[in-house]
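Progress report, Aim 2. The chain analyzed during this reporting quarter is listed below.
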Amino acid sequence: MGEMREPLRELIDCGLPQALEVMGERWSFMILRASFNGLHHFEEFLSELGIARNILSNRLAKLVEHRILKREPCADDRRKIEYRLTDKGLDLLPAMIALRQWGQKYGAEFVTEDPVLVDERDRLPIGLVSILSHDGRILGPMDLNMIARADVGKRSDGSMAEAADGLARGDVVDLETAKRVAAG
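Predicted structure tokens for the chain:
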């Protein structure tokens, strides 16, 4: 996948090992999934997930420590604590959806999703999570490359590329056109 390889023994200079350090076990993902589904209270997580009290307490503390969830008093009863997703936690949603889609495709048995995750505007199922270029083109494995930071934007012919503004939340992409452009 490119001109360079990541230093695979280096755990500090790559986001993946750092993410796995925080999220790398099942219960953290299940708690995050429950949070995305609107659960906020310790007892809700406990009953809905069927997780042991000590494991739940440990995982919630770790997610709070890493600022994925925040602890705050309930508005209606300040003695109770709520766990709310932070912006950092909300940024994990695409990764969660990608893992869910992968599990539906390659799980031991075919998974029929019910309820179905849809886009709020049209109420139609969401598309597959994709890797997008800076300008919105859908990229496949052969479209990826690893280069030194100093060479970012330098094309293989030596010319320099300029970054487009890219896509913003809510932008509309014509997937068929994007696929044709990506295919060359």
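The first helix runs from residue 15 to 23. The mean pLDDT is 85. These observations will guide the mutagenesis work planned for the next reporting period.
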